[in-house]
Every structure is written in C-alpha cells, then in structure tokens.
Design goal:
The structure is a homodimer. The first copy, chain A, has about 425 residues and is of the alpha/beta class. The first copy, chain A, is built from seven helices and 24 strands. In chain A, strand 18 and strand 19 form a beta hairpin. The longest helix of chain A has 19 residues. Chains A and B meet through helix 2, strand 13, helix 3, strand 20 and strand 21 of A and helix 2, strand 13, helix 3, strand 20 and strand 21 of B. Chains A, B: It catalyses: adenylyl-molybdopterin + molybdate = Mo-molybdopterin + AMP + H(+). Chains A, B: Pfam families: MoCF_biosynth, MoeA_C, MoeA_N.
C-alpha cells in the first residue's frame, strides 16, 4: 500500500525547521579569515572615530577667532608656522593670525579650530590671505563624529562583509569571535548513481546532487563531509545515518525519502526515534522533502530529483544552517518582477520555477530558465532566481507581476515573506 | 599651485576602465574546487539528459497499445513480470498485457512506452487493473528532454554557481577549465597608518582600507598580495610600484592620489609612463579615484577615505577584474527603491550613499546606513547597497523612488545601467 502523507504549506514547513535551529558555539579567528563568517559578539568602538579633530581637506589650520571680519575688501593675512601631513602632530601652538599648513587626515594643531581650504586662499610665500570669516569647527571632522567610544557599531549575529572587516581593523580586532560553522554531512542514496569520474552505464546517471549541495554549502562558507552513498539495504542505511548524526549538526540525504519500494529513509527516521517535522510540503518541485530532527541534529531528506533537491536545500537547509550560526537574515531575498512568459497551467501547490531575473531602470523582468520539471538539471545551471507561483492559483500570463526569490546573495533577509 | 583636474562622468570612467580589461589565461581545476570560478570553456552535453526513457514516478511500465479501451466499466488487467528500482535494467521484454513494476528514475523496459502511476491502479497480488487508456509516452521522461547530446548547456564566461556544478557533474567533468584569477597587489599609502595590531597613537589611525579591500577581493574569490605600505618618499614609491606592476595584473593603492603635498602617486604614474585613464570622477565620495594602465597592468588609485575607497573599488576595480576573467556580468545589480529619508542637499556630482535596502511584498525601501561623509567607516559596515543620486539634481525627499545598486551579490549583471 502507498502511504498517504499530509502536505503542509511551505511557510509552515519553514517555520517548523527554523524553530529547531539551535545556535552553534563560537570560536576566535584571525581578522584575515573573518570575511564571510558570522559575528558572535558585537563590534564595539574601542575609541572615537575619528580619534581626534581631523582635517578633511588639504589647507591651513587656523583659529576661527582670527578670521572675524575677513572679506574681499578686507582680507586677513596669516603666517604659516608649520607644515604637517597625515600622521604628523605639529608641536606648534597657534598664536594670533598664525596658521599650520595641513593635509587631509592630519590632526588639528593646538589652538586651531577651523580649516581654510587651499582654494579659499591666496598664497604668498610663508603667508596667505583669506576673504571670509570661518566659524568654529568649520571644515573640521570633529573627534567622534563617525563613532563614539563604547558605541556598538555592528551587532552580534551580523554577516562579516568587507565593511565589517573595515571597522574590525579600525578598532584593532586582530582576532574576531565568530560562530563556528555547522558540521554538515552528505549522504547520497540511489543505486542508479555513478561517481562523476565513472563512465555512463545503461540505466544509470552520475550523482550531480552531491557536488551541487557541496557547492551550495560552499557558497555559505560551509565545508561538507562527504559520507558516501547509502547502500540498498535498510539496516545498513540505519547504521550509516546513525553514525552520521553523531558527528554532524546536520545530515543531508538526497533521494530515498519518497514512498517507493526502495526508499528506506522514512523507516530509518522511525528507528532513530527522530521527530519528523514534515514529510510532504505543498510545493513543486520537492513535495517529498522531509526534515527530521534528533539529538540536536537536523536530518534534511532532500529529493533525488536535481531541481527538487536544489529547491529543498535553498528553502529549508540554507536558512536553518544560517540561523544556527546566529545570523538573523537567513531567508532568500524577496522581490517582484514581470513575467516574460505564460504559465498556463493551474498551480495546486506553490511552484518554485528556476528563472532568470533582470532588473533595469525600465523595470524588473523574469523568465523561466528553461525546462522546468523536477528532474531537470540544466535549468538549475541557468537561473539566478525562483519565480514563485502561489498554490491555489490558475495560470499566469506574460506581463503579470509575480513573486521572486533571489538566489546567490551573500546575505539573506530577515523574514520569510511568502505563504 | 594646486593642479586643476577635469572630472569625467561616472559612466565614462567605467567605460574607460572596461575597455582596458584584457582576458587572463585559463587553467584546469578539479570539480570540487570549481565553485565560484568563471568557465573558460562552454559546458557541452556529453550525452542526452535523461540518457534513456525514464520513469518519473513509482508505478508500472506498460505497452500503451494494451491500455486501449480501458474504462471504469471495463477495467483492463495486467500481470507484473518484474520489479525494478532506479539504476536497474529489466531483462524482461513486455508481451501483451504484461507490466514491470518500476520506481522513479528507472529506465523503461523493452517494449514499454507508458507509465501507469501507482495511484492509477488497483493492485491484486501479481496483477493490477486500470480504468483509463494511456497514450504512447504518457508519464514518461523521454531520453533527451532536458538536454540533447552536443548541446551547449552553459556558455564560456559563466560564473560557476551550484547549478553549473550539477551539470558539470552530470556530464562527467572531473576537471573544469576556468579563468585564472588575476594577481592583485595591494599597497597602502599614508604615514598616519598603523597596523591592526598596533596601539593607537596621537594623530594616527589603523589601516582599515587594506583589510577591507582584501575582503572585497575575497568576496570575488581573489586572493590579495599585501605588498606593504608606500614610504613617504617619491623615489621609493616609484620603485615599489614599478616592482608591483611586474608581478601583478592589477595594483591597488589606497590614498596618495589627491593633489596634497605628500601625494606622490600622480608623479609615479608619470614616471612609469602609465596612461592615466582618469584622475577625477564626477562622483561623491571618491572623486579623486584614479585609474591608470601600463604594460597590461591596471593601477587602481583608490582614495584613502574608507567610504570613498569602498566605492572606488566596487565601481571600477570589481568590474574590471571580473571582466578580465571573461565574465559578462561584471556590474553591480541595479534596482529601484523608495527613500525613507530626505536628502535635502543638491547633488552637483553623482552621489553613492551607503544604504540599507529591503524589498518586501509591500515595496522596496532604502535608508541611509548612517553617517555618510567620505571618511566614514561605520556606514560601510552597515549597508548592503548604494543609493545613487544623479549629479545635477536638487534634493530628494522621503517617498521618492531612487536608483539603487546592490552590493554583495555573488554574480553581477551585464550592463552598467546608470549615467
């Protein structure tokens, strides 16, 4: 008899997974290796930025009080007493109508409280004249204007992008406390699978899901433990999965989750005492995607069909792993775009169609990336987004605006915005 | 005297850079290391996909001719002769009203040309009945429906994302010919710069641009050669830059490109005989960004101000390096969003304001990421996009729709869509 499964909505499935995503530990890494990791602690300003009153221009540091009354008719003359570049401190304290020639980035000398830009002067040897008064702190980047000492600059949980690296460097973080990366194991199932280096045989295909998932993980900065192929035997499957969950935070399997005669995973989950969060989702492709959870380890049972496998990973595995690292933007970015092709068929379930998204000043457009059955592999290679057609809708026409999820952003977004 | 420079429009500056981006060589890498690289050769289907007529369901393989006339009132009975899973070939050739029980992914046995899904049958021991006729090839994934043998599946120049990995695996590419990564050297300038591990000193700041650029390069998969800090001496600068261009495809410097008294790079470019593509761009921040070119090597003279440095890299260095690898999507993705804050000031030049972009079913919104002077470092850490306010415009109000460039996409787009 074929087991009857009760499908649940995609959003409900996403929520069930995310509720189980417990945080991993943290570790310290050198700044040079911190790009792409998730901050385990906030970045705190260890000093004000800039750390001193700073000249943002090439010019002359003056006392604003000496500039009072300057005009085109009544120019005021200053005498240059010193000349400093960035990184240099002038030992001179400004007296009346004295100035220090100063370059961008240098600290104001003692007594100075304004910067006259070079182009605001007429220079004559060691003197120059100005023709307008300057207010206190005019043309000055005051100490602390960018950041105050003790201020939280970046919150814990943030993705470490290049700008975060810049503030870490500014504040002298030679080492950074980041979330450890979840340990993810990968088990393929399917007696039809050949390795990439094997010649094709009748009835067989090469395992493309394994390398694909390894790359999906690598895109997130996560290495994948290749744990081999599950044998065509339920007891052996059980033992391999049991061993995998001991060493991994998440075990991904491809194939074997359906209700076919050789799909052993459902009974393996049962024997492991795993809680099956769902085993049928109202979506195409990937409706058989199963997620289970046991001893703090996720079991992601993805479809063996390439397109379905890809969708299952991006919708469930990716956000769970990101959330485990403490990041609060685990979801694929949402946008809208205008369809450039008809989708005549009705959609009983949510459909995720691999597609090519383009945004231009004339609008945002999306077209299917080719052949889009669940077993397609070529359309995965061509797309950069999913068209999402909600379940319960009739067909869509060219020109209709549709929901889109973008694939391949280094950072995600905070919430799942679809049903 | 202060040198007068003639600023050119951003688009013109981008074009001048891109015209000089010559392709680098290619190399072979193992499939496991190919993610994130650029294909140097197209991916060609070495066999049809699927490679055989394939069952997309769990069910029974039958001869469609035997199903003619089946109805609820006149069910037709079949006898099951064999039972195969994926990867298995049945040795049985179907005779009249014979069937083979078949699982998803298995090849159709000889004689069969249709699949009856399990749920379309009533099973009784070794027989089952059907109540509707099946057309030839009904419920069959025919050989080659996804890809024909010899078809170009992915063009040369494509970014190798996980879907490309899947097709490479499918077609048995254990090694992949990819573009070599450009060799990029980084030289900091500025006597005010401390290393990240040094304690703060009066008048000095830590070098944040170096680690930031290294991370911007790492985001593109490119390692950066840290070539040190340029000394405060023109001859020594000349010698260091000259050495750098011999070993690098691109040399990035930060600071020292302005017209200040300690800015030696303009004269270094002259002594090298480099062609200066531009040294002033109509943009804020980063108007002093300079790009020069000599002996097939780019010299990217980025501003020493962190925000300006970041912008200069993303607008000029990034697309040039991507284009050198033969990829045709080197530009930051464009989108539009509604401003959530006023920008009262007029914009004589194009402004690139580091900002936080969010797209939701209710619309796309963008807000500035905080303090946005060219010397700001904190706003770089907080944003994921640039607000682009065109030069020659008056202020913008909250609620206005503005141009946006997205930062941090793994892939870019094909064209520069802004002026």
């Amino acid at each position: 008899m074929v087991e009857k499964r009760k499908p649940i909505p995609v959003k409900e499935a996403v929520d069930r997974v995310m509720k189980r995503a417990a945080h991993v530990k943290s570790e310290s890494v050198p700044l040079e290796e911190a790009y792409g990791r998730i901050l385990a602690e906030p970045v705190i300003a260890s000093h004000p930025v800039p750390p001193f009153d700073r000249s943002p221009y090439d010019g002359f540091a003056v006392r604003s009080v000496d500039t009072k009354g300057a005009s085109g008719e009544s120019r005021i003359t200053f005498t240059v007493m010193d000349h400093i570049g960035a990184g240099t401190i002038s030992s001179h304290t400004l007296g009346e109508r004295e100035a220090v020639r100063i370059m961008t980035g240098a600290p104001l000398p003692a007594g100075a409280d304004a910067i006259v830009m070079l182009e605001q002067t007429v220079i004559d040897g060691q003197t120059f004249t100005i023709r307008k008064p300057f207010a206190p702190m005019e043309n000055v980047s005051p100490k602390g204007e960018d950041a105050k000492e003790g201020e939280v600059i970046v919150e814990a949980g943030a993705f470490i992008q290049p700008g975060v690296i810049a503030v870490l460097a500014t504040f002298g973080y030679t080492n950074v406390q980041v979330a450890t990366r979840p340990i993810v194991g990968l088990l393929a199932t399917g007696t039809e699978l050949l390795e990439v280096n094997e010649p094709l045989e009748p009835g067989k295909i090469r395992n493309s899901n394994g390398p694909m998932i390894a790359a999906q993980l690598k895109r997130m900065g996560i290495d994948c433990r290749l744990l081999g192929t599950l044998p065509d035997d339920e007891d052996a499957c059980f033992n391999m999965v049991k061993e995998a969950i001991h060493e991994c935070d998440a075990v991904i399997t491809t194939g074997g989750v359906s209700v076919g005669d050789f799909d052993y995973l459902p009974s393996v989950y049962k024997r492991l005492g795993a809680e099956v969060l769902f085993n049928k989702v109202m979506m195409r492709p990937g409706s058989v995607t199963t997620v289970a959870h046991v001893n703090d380890t996720f079991l992601f049972g993805l479809s063996g069909n390439p397109s379905a496998c890809f969708v299952g990973f991006e919708l469930f595995t990716r956000p769970a792993l990101i959330s485990m690292m403490g990041n609060d933007k685990p979801y694929l970015p949402y946008t809208k775009a205008v369809l450039t092709a008809d989708f005549a068929k009705a959609n009983p379930f949510n459909r995720f169609i691999r597609a090519i998204y383009e945004s231009t000043p004339k609008g945002s457009f999306i077209e299917p990336a080719g052949f889009n059955k669940s077993n397609s592999v070529t359309s995965i290679a061509r797309g950069n987004a999913f068209i999402v057609l909600p379940g319960g809708t009739r067909g869509f026409q060219k020109g209709d605006e549709v929901d889109v999820l973008l694939i391949g952003k280094e950072e995600g977004v905070e919430s799942w915005m679809l049903n």
